[in-house]
Amino acid sequence: MAELTVRRLLIDLEAPFARRWNGGDAFRTAWFNALSMSFPVGEQFFIDAVRAGVATLPEHQRVAFEPAIRAFVGQEATHRRIHALFNAHLEKQGLVNRWEARARARLKTLEGVDLRIWVGATAATEHFTAILAEHLLSDHSSLAGAQPRLATLWLWHASEETEHRSTAFDLYRAMDGNEEWRLRLFRVVTWNFFTDALRQTLNNLWHDGSFWRWRTWADGWRFLFGRHGIVRTLRQPWRRYLSADFHPSQQDDRLAATWLREHASAWQPVGGATS
Fold it and tell me: Which residue in 8, 90, 182, 259 has a CA-CA distance of 20 to 30 Å to 239?
């Protein structure tokens, strides 16, 4: 397993930012805000899942996995903290986080189930975050005109998601997770992820006052379904997960590695995971 670095992001998230911080584009801003609203509860679930999952392995496997798990937890805990700060500004702007409440209710249904379900759902979601990250790193229009410190936040997060994309998947396999459930969980996660993301985006636009503007929907259509839109761009990467021979390491990570190397001044390595 590749060695992971836990990083502290060196940007100011105390100062407030503009309501439409992403180049003045209401839809793109609402979409990224929606994703951020899901991260604190989602990242905590991923942390809990891999910690509980690795504890079920025989000792020799557990010892082999523990360095990667510690770094995964450290990266995800840092994402959770940073996005909690980001989300606090959104709350002050009057946005209402409905996604988190739905996610918490959904996670309650997983209490007491086989831990492989937890880890399999984490692996499926990590595929989404990895392919979204690849899109973000390759298509500069997604953050065109964004405030520089916030663009740095999203590109740093994207790079680390690419970096640890294999951790939960490898753990699921080590726990003898089967293919039927891997694919079933992926389809469930697909439905939940996109419906939650769209519902929260619409909610954000409503509270932002942009919901009824023609320009909002023209920009939104282009962002989602245009030539370089998310839906069109991610169709093939999404389908890769359905292949019997799929492994997350098949995804090219050069863009993430390059961004982290070229923007080393934006972060500092830290000694270990955050609980």
Answer: 259
- Cα separation, 104 vs 191, in Å, equals 16
| Span 200-241, pLDDT tens digits | 999 999 999 999 999 999 999 999 999 889 999 999 999 999
**CA of 134: how far to CAs of 35, 108, 167, 253, in Å?**
15, 31, 17, 8
Encoded tokens for 114: 């086989």
Which residues sit opposite 267 in a β-bridge?
9
Q: Residue 223 maps to which CATH number?
A: 1.10.620
Domain count for the chain, please give it. Answer: 1
Residue with tokens 């986080």: 97
Nearest to 136 by CA among 105, 99, 162: 162
Which residue blocks in the chain are alpha helix, DSSP H? 26-54, 59-92, 98-108, 115-138, 148-163, 167-174, 179-208, 214-225, 230-240, 254-262
Q: Is residue 219 part of a domain?
A: yes
Gap between the Cα atoms of 232 and 226, Å rounded? 7
